[in-house]
Amino acid sequence: PRVDLITPNLPEAADLLGEAEITDIADMPAQAARLSGLGAKHVLLKGGHLAGDTSVDLLRTEGSVESVEAPRVETTDDHGTGCTLSAAIAALRPQRSDWLQAVREGKEYLSGALGAAHRLDVGHGRGPVHHFHHWWD
Length: 137
Fold this sequence. Notes:
- The chain has helices at residues 10-17, 28-36, 81-92, 99-115, and strands at residues 5-6, 42-46, 54-61, 64-71.
- By secondary structure, the protein is an alpha+beta fold.
- Helix 3 packs across helix 4.
């Protein structure tokens, strides 16, 4: 109830609700509604854990539900995706007219950061997304 937007992925949503993780995109609207019932004004339910060529997230705002989609980026360098997306949305929201626009642009930014992640050569294991992909070649 103290936040404007929560951004759980499917495993996190299941934990918050005390239920099994959903595995079908058709179940996302009902789960987003149940999350909204916990008190958050807006819910971005992230479907990145689902299979398919498209990554589908669901934004529930004051009773309306919008799908926000992007082509799935095949990479093992995906460390920080959730934090990156929520930070991008937080930075964009004051500059945009509504949540949907901020979420769409945040997801677009994340897709670019995922697509460029292979250009970084840092650490071991699953690498981070490339936050500076627009400015750094």
